[in-house]
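Researcher: Good morning. I'm working through a list of sequences from a screen, and I'd like to move beyond sequence-only analysis. For each chain I'm collecting a predicted structure so we can compare shapes side by side. This is the next one on the list. No need for commentary yet; just the structure.
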Amino acid sequence: MLKLFKYLKPYWLLITALVILVFAMVALNLQLPDYMAKIINEGIVNQNTSSVYHNGLIMLLLALGAAACTVVVGFLAARIGTGFARDVRNKIFAQVESFSLVEFNKFSTASLITRSTNDVQQIQMVLVLMLRLVLMAPITAVWAVYKAYALAPSLSWIIALAVVALLGVITTMFTVALPKFKILQKLVDKLNLVTRENLTGLRVIRAFNNEKLEQGKFEQANVELTAANLFVNRLMVVMQPVMMVVFNLTAITIVWVGAKLIGNGSLEVGNMIAFMQYAMQVIMSFLMISIIFIMVPRASVSAGRVSEVIETEPVIKNPKSLEDISGKKGGVVEFKNVSFQYPTADTPVLCDINFTANSGETTAFIGSTGSGKSTLINLIPRFYDVSEGKVLIDGVDVRQMKLEDLYSKIGYVPQKPVLFSGTVESNIKYGAPNSSETDVKKVAEISQAEEFIKNLPEKYQNEIAQGGANVSGGQKQRLSIARALARKPEIYIFDDSFSALDFKTDAALRKALKSETKNKTVLIVAQRIATILSAEKIIVLEEGKIAGVGNHSELMKFCDVYREIALSQLSEEELAKYQIDVDAEKAKIERHESLVAKGGI
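Model: Good morning. Structure tokens for this chain:
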């Protein structure tokens, strides 16, 4: 938790003022028993009414002063606590924004949400209590013990006995509570995870009629969290009666012993009453400290989780020595001896990849599921960094480019299209905020999104729900493509971005794209051969290696892997153009699969 205290630096003036006011508040409160003793000893015992009024008025002024200090201390503590929480949340958000996919794989989405909300809230709550109580409680306890001893040394052993008992209770509570708080935050993560899965996968859950299964998972997570919370709250419940027992036993002991001392004339009545008030303040100080001790462990766990996010150094960041790319244009992408292996994987996903994607050409990637197509594409915008080799744009290694400059060259359409809450227009202009209305309509027409936008009630101002929940998969893909086109980059990356489109829309979109991107570098990952038939260069991947490079006609003749994909997708008339004996090829594939199944290969 101490690591996060550096975010309190902007509030040092407020903290200084708060400390001064806390000292003033304690000093004023600790003067009250002295004047109470004077009222009893000088006023009531001696029947001096003027002394009662005089000392009573001073007590009233002291009480009002202490109350004013208390109000201001509470205000300053709240101001510091909320400002600190805001700064920490901003830091977490900025840090998460800088994360690469490597860091996102380390922290789950549910955990990141918990850390930036629930955990920060726990820290804020404890910080406010610490500013109000932790400063006041020790000062009050030490000062009250000193004044009590000066007032009646013969009764001081009672306070010492009470303090030892309180320390024993606090230590026991702290030892029992700490492990539970660590478990508690993990259970909050688990509950958030289950809730998020239910909300995002609601359609799938209903489609498979698994509402009861998911309800059971949620109930289990909820029951576990409730049990942990009940245990912690029971500790707090036990704390108060234990403290009250110590409080009342101390008062009884003081009265009993004090009465004997008053009887033999070694102690005045007023002094005994004042001593009792000091003793009560000492016990109340320890009660406040015990509350903090119960809450600090949970806040400590939360602070550790928040610090873990803030201190995680992104693997992918701006290089120390930047390459000047201001004069480099064209968007030529080159892979040189590239290999890539995921951090937690045992084997590489890509091995020795070499190719060049030239400006004005369409370079397509095709292969079976798991062949490494999307991974390869993700290396260009540095979602991951290569394990070996280089990825070059216009002859410059992407690792030597400023991230902002790299991203400005790329228009990226992900495999799973992502839309943001807002309007149709705001989503299209997401990467190019200064786009004119004409530009927005133009890219909507090219991406074939205009077709459905014109049927929306409010056209381009129609609301888009979070994640694009109120539009179809194909509509999301078209809006994502329009967003990339609006940016007018040098390099277009389409990661299987046409899969949700029907063949007619797909063909119309590719035709419109061809004229729009004629001087750009276009990279397409596809599952359908029909999508990449006209590509100048098709790269076939198999098990992370290049199995063939060429255009459609060349690959049909010389690449077995490509031809196998074609056999499963193209019509017999299309295959006949390449003089392929369909039956012979299918028989060859069946023999190969049979040998694999028997372990012959």
